Amino acid sequence: MPEKPSDREWKQIMAEERKIPRHVAIILDGNGRWAKKRGLPRTMGHKEGSRVVEETVFHAGELGIEYLTVYAFSTENWKRSEEEVSSLMTLFRYYMKRLRVIARENDAVVRMIGDRSRFEPDIIEMMDRLEEETKDNHGLTFTIAVNYGGRDDIRRAVKKIAEKAKQGELSPDTITEETISGELDTAYMPDPDLLIRTGGELRISNFLLWQIAYAEIYVTDVLWPDFTKEDLEKAVEAYGKRNRRFGDAK
């Protein structure tokens, strides 16, 4: 008798049949505009956006998505007002605690990508603890990009490769695309199949520049705090209708 597929394997089989993207990345745009429309401080938009992230983790898992990556805080976001950045750090500390509950409820693995060195020691400790506590979970892998920039990701990867070449660990002639991918923050997961951007803006904003080379892009005018399960399903449905050729003429 053949071995019965595990729940995770069944989900993957069903997802492939329904053309569900294995990896979905989302640029969470529109928190500030959502708050402004309601006469609220921008921080309230970020707080409401955090709640929607929690719901999206659950809905993505239900759909059979294996990897969900969200762009929470870019390397450029430090340029915002000191008050807003301070409020975001306070929210981030709270959210690190919430993520432990979210991970437990969804059996999710939580990972952080980006340069952590600029954060306060207590935040870095919370990130490390969260990753350690969830590493053996079996559900969706939920990745949060914080102090992340696509160019900085590539810069740091090139720096590590250059150091290995300097130490004689590899020859420049042997460097391949896989070599570079293996040194990026996202080396532990496949490249995104679908990139969703909320808020209607038509730009990538320095997010996963190397990794989204062949991702399908879906833009919606819905502001992130208004993003629902139905909006996620619409994006996935649109993805399922695309003909992904990866440069082929077929």
Kindly summarize this structure in a few lines.
45% of the residues lie in helices and 14% in strands. The chain is α/β, with parallel strands linked by helices and 250 residues long.
Please give a structural write-up:
Strands 3-4-2-1-5-6 form a six-stranded parallel sheet, sandwiched between helices. With 250 residues, it is an alpha/beta fold. The mean pLDDT is 90. The chain has helices at residues 7-17, 31-37, 42-63, 82-106, 121-134, 150-166, 177-181, 229-240, and strands at 23-27, 67-74, 109-113, 141-148, 194-197, 216-219. The protein contains eight helices and six strands. The protein has one domain: Undecaprenyl pyrophosphate synthetase. Helix 5 (121-134) links the parallel strand 3 and strand 4. The longest helix has 25 residues, at 82-106.
